[in-house]
Amino acid sequence: MKTWMKITGCAGAALVLAVALPSWGDEDASKALKAAPPAVQVAVVQLVGTNKINDFDSEVYAGKTVYDVEFAVKGASYEADIDASGNILTREVEVDLAIIPPAVIDAAKKAHADGKVGEGSIVTAGDKMYYEMDVKVGKDEHEMQIGADGAVIGDAIEAPEAPEAPEPGEKPEAKGEDKD
Fold first, then answer.
1. CA distances (Å), 49 to each of 44, 53, 72, 149, 168, in order?
2. For residues 147 and 153, is the Cβ–Cβ distance under 8 A?
3. Which residue ranges make up each domain of the chain?
4. What pLDDT, in 10s, does the model give residues 62-80?
5. 21-60 confidence digits (pLDDT tens)
6. Predicted confidence band at 180 (pLDDT cuts at 50, 70, 90)?
7. Which residues contact 173 (CB under 8 A, 6 or more apart)?
8. Strand, helix or coil at 117?
């Protein structure tokens, strides 16, 4: 009986993927998601529904692959990290700084008095909830994790994004050249 349920569940998941794929933000995201394990694909479909995927990629943390999906719902930006088994590790939603508790904003400003607070997000990881604040200090972008009480949980400098590789037959951009 259990084998039949597993077969039926897998067939059902394949049918869901074939029928209810979210709209893809770009071709690279589409290719990356199609190459991900089936459990990750199912988790993404369940999480995103028919909303637009803006980005999908994977990174290796502590020897384990984590899949990152960025998507939009009614104009709000969301992000989730998913493990290879399809478990959602974190969920994040960007929010207006006006709804972030003053203790959180004050903690970010205190940690980096010469910095400028940029974006803020609400993050859930398991049963924990915290705020993620982006603070620009000189050329560095700090990603801070702060509890609702203002306690700083983490503060790391984000690595700069690598430039995109040119398409075949396309010349590389000159340093400082703007795409748009």
1. 8, 10, 11, 34, 33
2. yes
3. 1-87, 96-159
4. 999 999 999 999 989 999 9
5. 555 566 788 888 999 999 999 999 999 988 889 999 999 9
6. very low
7. 163, 166, 179
8. strand
In CATH, which of 3.10.450.40, 3.40.50.150, 3.40.50.300, 1.10.10.60 is domain 96-159?
3.10.450.40
Residues 6+ apart with CB under 8 A from 43: 82, 86, 87, 88
Q: What does the alpha-carbon distance between residue 41 and residue 38 come to, in Å, rounded to a whole number?
A: 5
Amino acid at 38: P
What is the SS3 assignment for 111?
A: helix
Residue with tokens 């077969």: 7
**Residue 22 in contact with residue 50, Cβ under 8 Å?**
yes
DSSP characters over 56-95: EEEEEETTEEEEEEEEEETTEEEEEEEETTS-EEEEEEEE
